[in-house]
TrEMBL record:
TM regions (residue ranges): 12-33, 45-63, 75-93, 99-118, 139-161, 176-196, 217-237, 243-263, 270-290, 302-319
Keywords tagged on the record: Hydrolase, Membrane, Metalloprotease, Protease, Transmembrane, Transmembrane helix
Domain spans labelled CAAX prenyl protease 2/Lysostaphin resistance protein A-like: 181-282
Listed InterPro entries: MmRce1-like (IPR042150), Rce1/LyrA-like_dom (IPR003675)
Organism name: Tissierella carlieri
Name under which the protein is recorded: CPBP family intramembrane metalloprotease
Lineage: Bacteria, Bacillati, Bacillota, Tissierellia, Tissierellales
GO terms assigned for molecular function: metallopeptidase activity
Length: 349
């Protein structure tokens, strides 16, 4: 991850802050539900992993002077004000904060662009935020994700005997216009998607892979990522079938963790992963009008998702990027200056 190794202290701080915020705001979400709208809680929750990373690094004296502080502090300010605004609107003024909150997210994204350009290029790159990195391969993997995403929907429509429902949206000029504008729309809301991916892919993935191996690392990451969604599963995605929703979330997060982990190791570009996350969250809604809220799952639908994600994403575990533990260990020696004995078990892991 970038140019430094994650210490145990940084890892504990990251997990404590990320899950601490999630638990606190999850309790607030439960108190608000169903009396008030909880639509804004999942949107703000997306920022917590990045907050965990940035806070942990800012508290680390070793790295404090080398950080892109303008970017980090701007992100922290935007997120803290989002949390305060959300809680005040819901519990003090008893109002739905959705519209104003989305405007603040848009303004926050623009503020981050300014902060990004005010920090030195060296600091931006060192801490994994360089935008123009492996651009060509990034575009290829974004298109690959879109192809896999649409393949799953197409197969589902065949099994349901409703192929026309898959094809119909592509006949709409309006939908094509929105699809082509997605890169621009990303610029208005990237703060949220970067929020998750900077925590999970940039920070936690390498930290876990260095400790337990590349394959096990992304699997454990998928489990952690899935469990982190618990409040959203219970009070937003599927309040009527929360157990089904949680299991379905674990399936999705493990599958995506494998694929996104692979893409991140190939591109080393966190913006690419954030864009894929953005497309995943928005493509279905643009094409088919789904909101992803108040869903009712059955064990059959959960099993179908397990089947699709196993077929489409789990095979990426066989990619050579997941077999480079020996090279990574050598790089770790170069970064830390420590002598590390590489065993046969480490290479095979």
């Amino acid at each position: 991850m970038g140019k430094y190794n994650v210490s145990n202290r940084d890892l504990i701080l990251f997990l404590g802050i990320t899950f601490g915020l999630t638990v606190i705001m999850g309790i607030a979400m439960r108190l608000a539900y169903p009396t008030y709208s909880v639509d804004s809680f999942p949107l703000v929750q997306m920022n917590y992993p990045a907050i965990g990373v940035m806070a942990a690094l800012l508290l680390n004296k070793k790295w404090r002077n080398e950080l892109p502080k303008n970017f980090f502090k701007t992100y922290l300010f935007i997120t803290i004000t989002l949390i305060i605004y959300l809680l005040v609107e819901v519990f003090v003024f008893h109002q739905n904060p959705d519209i104003h909150l989305e405007i603040w997210i848009m303004l926050g994204s623009f503020s981050l662009i300014i902060a990004y350009n005010s920090d030195s290029k060296e600091k931006i790159e060192k801490f994994g935020l360089k935008f123009k990195k492996n651009v060509k391969s990034s575009i290829i993997y974004i298109l690959l994700f879109v192809a896999l995403y649409l393949t799953a929907i197409f197969i589902s429509s065949i099994l349901a005997g409703e192929v026309h429902s898959f094809i119909e949206p592509f006949k709409s000029l309006k939908k094509w216009s929105v699809l082509l504008l997605m890169p621009l729309l990303f610029a208005f809301s990237f703060i949220s998607f970067l929020g998750e991916e900077y925590g999970w892919r940039y920070f936690l993935q390498p930290a876990l892979q260095e400790r337990i191996g590349k394959r096990k690392g992304v699997i454990v990451l998928g489990l952690i990522w899935g469990i982190w969604h618990l409040p959203v599963n219970m009070f937003y995605y599927s309040p009527e079938t929360p157990l089904h929703s949680v299991i379905n979330q674990l399936i999705i997060c493990i599958g995506y963790s494998v694929f996104l982990g692979y893409v991140y190791m190939k591109t080393e570009n966190i913006w690419t992963i954030s864009m894929i996350h953005f497309i995943n969250n928005g493509l279905g809604g643009i094409l088919y009008g789904g909101t992803g809220t108040n869903l009712v799952f059955t064990w059959k639908s959960v099993f179908i998702n397990l089947l699709f994600f196993s077929i489409l994403y789990m095979p990426f575990l066989l990619a050579k990027e997941y077999r480079k533990s020996d090279i990574d260990m050598v790089e770790a020696v170069e970064y830390t200056g420590e002598e590390i004995e590489v065993t046969e078990k480490d290479i095979e892991r």
